[in-house]
Amino acid sequence: MNPQDLIRKKRDGGKLLPEEISAFVRGVSNNTWADYQISALVMAMFINGLNLSEQNALTKAMLNSGEVFNFSELDAPIADKHSTGGVGDKTSLLIAPIVAACGIAVPMISGRGLGHTGGTLDKLESIPGYNVNLSKEEFKKVIKKCGFAMMGQTAEIVPADKKIYALRDATATIESIPLIVASIMSKKMAEGLDALVLDVKTGTGAFMQRESDARKLAKALVKTGNAFDVKTEALLTDMNQPLGKYVGNAFEVFECVKLLQGETDKQSQSTLDLSIELAARMLILCGVAKTIQSSKFKVQSVLESGEALEKFRENIEAQDGDSRICDKPELLLNKSLLEVKIKSPESGYISEIDASEIGKAISAIGGGRLKVDDKIDTAVGFACEKKLGEKVKEHEPLGTLFCRTETQAAKVLAKLQMAYKVSVEKPVRKFELIKEVI
Amino acid sequence: MNPQDLIRKKRDGGKLLPEEISAFVRGVSNNTWADYQISALVMAMFINGLNLSEQNALTKAMLNSGEVFNFSELDAPIADKHSTGGVGDKTSLLIAPIVAACGIAVPMISGRGLGHTGGTLDKLESIPGYNVNLSKEEFKKVIKKCGFAMMGQTAEIVPADKKIYALRDATATIESIPLIVASIMSKKMAEGLDALVLDVKTGTGAFMQRESDARKLAKALVKTGNAFDVKTEALLTDMNQPLGKYVGNAFEVFECVKLLQGETDKQSQSTLDLSIELAARMLILCGVAKTIQSSKFKVQSVLESGEALEKFRENIEAQDGDSRICDKPELLLNKSLLEVKIKSPESGYISEIDASEIGKAISAIGGGRLKVDDKIDTAVGFACEKKLGEKVKEHEPLGTLFCRTETQAAKVLAKLQMAYKVSVEKPVRKFELIKEVI
User: Fold this and answer.
1) How far apart are the C-alpha atoms of B221 and B224, rounded to whole Å?
2) Edge-to-edge strands of the sheet including A195-202?
3) Which of A15, A47, A414, B234 is the most buried (most CB within 10 A)?
4) C-alpha dist (Å) from residue A86 to A243, A340, A355, B130, B434
């Protein structure tokens, strides 16, 4: 099966057979397909689409291009959560210890931030000593010990995805539902899961800004998950403002530890609410709880009892991090940072927040990546003081920027201010965190 | 203007602006676009199409990526002919000397054979000593001396085309009219022409097998030529059987010299007819003749007077070839070749000939190229004994294969025989050589 024949078939709108898709992915893995042939086929797939059976075949072929974990020895349900990415999206840090405290094993293979979005691995690395580079054996050992482990993608897991994703990034072929599904689901399936909850974000800080696109993606992800016999559910959630209070790696871990300690404040509430919802869904899919009420009650109880915080502490210790942050989360914060207030130019109500602009501002001062190999400053960040629908007076702070230098502040101040829209009228629009369960 | 933005625009069906197309071609030429980005955009162009202004902008940008000839010092009209390629298509070897004998300068930059089709440069190289690797200055000098010169593509002429074409070949994006137009016309425009006649072939031995596709291509080529102020005309011609008698490099030159000497036979007639038609069209476009009748009369007169043969002799001498072949064309032929007759399995009429199978058979025994860098055996070939519509008796020869070894013969004999269909009924279909003037 030569590359040209497969490319020609998809170019002309044909449906690729599973064995043709396998041949493609094999060609990617063993370098018999040239990069320009991969990108030509991917563009043809982008424009002419893939139907559900092609999408599943691509997911399967990519999954089989690498190692697949098997945790059957653990004698526990295996579950994970995946988010399509957002700004201030830190729920993994709460969900993993909560769900582990409820007796579910969570083999969380996470990513790093890119562009305006953050990544769990970067957040974890703001904990002094925390090691995300585990071997397969270490990963299993940590899960066995404390119920969850968090590591980065290895070269052995879905190697085809890494190459295809890099080419998609360079050739403007990211925003294709079947390609996104295959990329996400092949990596998640490689974790050997029983259940998966997806947090598909939509809004100004999400990759899928339009709700209709995000809904389509959510449905496609769920279909493919279930086709692989993994109980899969998706929540369509709001990303029209940063989630919770903080944006920035150390600050986000700080927020989570505070929540695990039982301390909430107004701006962190959405982080807690979404984490509880997602965790409760995981419990139900794993058969640990039956109704959403009883499931949430169980989640609340492991939070209130401190069991979830203890799980986090055990994990940090198992992954060589400094677990003192569990008692003193302020250890995470760099006290020497400049604090610059972003002030409202007028009185009124917050009617719009461009979350991606806030994410980009933090990336621009080193808190995120513009390119894949950029180094990160985990200390810098942003605190939301006002969120959508809230009343604000002229000159009252919308948020606080934590940065290293005046130059950094000058670079992003105007952008941060422009990210907010204040209207005189109280907005009638409802800002729902959870829009739909799919 | 970054590659992703341009790719995204065409991916989504947008129209690219001339400056965007220039940026792309510049990126190809200066290697700032990666091959996988070029191939992604080309696939998007293939599927979503280019309108006439994009097609012209691409042609112009490609033309401007390299050197453009200027023959204004010659004080003669400058014209060329281009064929989309076929089997036994040798008209360039007749047209160039004919037209030069009529006072028109012909700067013919030709190609090599690939797949089932032949190339003028390979044919010329069957003339002992003939040099197609001229410098720009030598090329001009030869034209000045004898009215025409024939050389290969240089690295300086439309360099972007070479890279894009190789990628199109590897990514199944050849058969796109705007991409074909830009590739052909940018190279022809680089010759600094006043007039161009295109021979667009359709049928079993053509790249565009379907007549409707070939007609579309012809129209698109003519539109773009005229947009560049080059008087352009296209003939839609039949390639449902090899043109003329012979297929194979030395044999084709032999056929042409015989025709220039005034010797025709039944099977060579179509070579002569098409060459006269194309040459006459060039004369008209250049203002050297007014009507097609008077133009053909002029062409006939330079053939009959021997002036065309003399031009060919002068050119061969100027390009270091052995001009004795003009008097003794049999010097071109290798007398030690095996002659194998392809016999008709039954009596009837020739109703179909798969010309591409004949071309492929000759390529397979070394007379053409399967890959771009294959070496060629210019001696081998095929003579058509019967053509479409002719009556044939059982065991009567359909053609003769001239090859080096019995193994070669065994390799292609069945294929050659299968290329012919014989029907008992006399075919009612008319086999027109020239289908339309566009």
Assistant:
1) 5
2) A79-83, A195-202, A231-238, A434-437
3) B234
4) 8, 23, 8, 68, 64
Single pTM value for the model: 0.87
Give the distance from residue A349's alpha carbon to the nearest chain B alpha carbon, in angstroms: 36
Identity at B280, one-letter amino acid code:
A
User: Is A246 within 8 Å of A255 (Cβ atoms)?
Assistant: yes
**What is the distance of C-alpha B187 from the center of its chain?**
13
B174: closest chain A residue by CA: A8
Residue B231: C-alpha distances to residues B192, B275, B286, B306 (Å) = 12, 19, 8, 29
**If you write DSSP's letter for every residue of B373-431 in order, what string do you get?**
T----TT-EEEESS-TT-EE-TT-EEEEEEES-HHHHHHHHHHHHHTEEEESSPP-S--
In chain A the domains, ranked by start, together with CATH numbers, are 3-49 (1.20.970.10), 79-156+173-329 (3.40.1030.10), 335-423 (3.90.1170.30)
In which residue are the tokens 């190999």 written?
Answer: A373
The values of phi and psi at residue A312, to 5°, are -65, -45
B176 part of the active site? no
**Looking at chain B, which residue has its C-alpha nearest residue A37?**
B171
* Alpha-carbon span B398 to B257, nearest angstrom: 24
Q: What is the DSSP letter of B367?
A: I
Q: Which of B16, B43, B213 to mutate to test the interface with A (most CBs of A within 10 A)?
A: B43
Flag if B171 and A48 touch (Cβ within 8 Å). Answer: no
> What six digits make up the tokens of A36?
């320009």
Q: Tell me which H or E stretch contains A391.
A: strand A391-392
Report the candidate in B235, B229, B123, B137 with the shortest Cα–Cα distance to residue B185: B229
* B406, two tokens: 């019995």
User: A2 CA to chain B: closest CA distance, Å?
Assistant: 10
Please state the ipTM of this predicted complex.
0.85
Q: What is the DSSP string of B60-125?
A: HHHHTTS-----GGG-S-BEEEEE---SS--THHHHHHHHHHTT-BEEEEE---BTTB--HHHHHT
The two three-digit tokens of residue A395, written as one number = 């000159």
Please state the φ and ψ torsions of residue B301, each to the nearest 5 degrees: -65, -40
pLDDT in tens for each of the 438 residues of chain B?
A: 789 999 999 999 999 999 999 999 999 999 999 999 999 999 999 999 999 999 999 999 999 999 999 998 888 999 999 999 999 999 999 999 999 999 999 999 988 887 788 899 999 999 999 999 999 999 999 999 999 999 998 888 999 998 999 899 899 998 899 999 999 999 999 999 999 999 999 999 998 889 999 999 999 999 999 999 999 999 999 999 999 999 999 999 999 999 999 999 999 999 999 999 999 999 999 999 999 999 999 999 999 999 999 999 999 999 999 999 999 999 999 999 999 999 999 999 999 999 999 999 999 999 998 777 788 999 999 999 999 999 999 999 999 999 999 999 999 999 999 999 999 988 777 778 999 999
Is the separation of the CB atoms in B91 and B271 below 8 Å?
yes
Burial profile A284-315: b = 16 or more Cβ within 10 angstroms, e = fewer: bbbebbeeeeebbebbeebbeeebbbbbbbbb
Lookup: tokens for B7: 């790719």
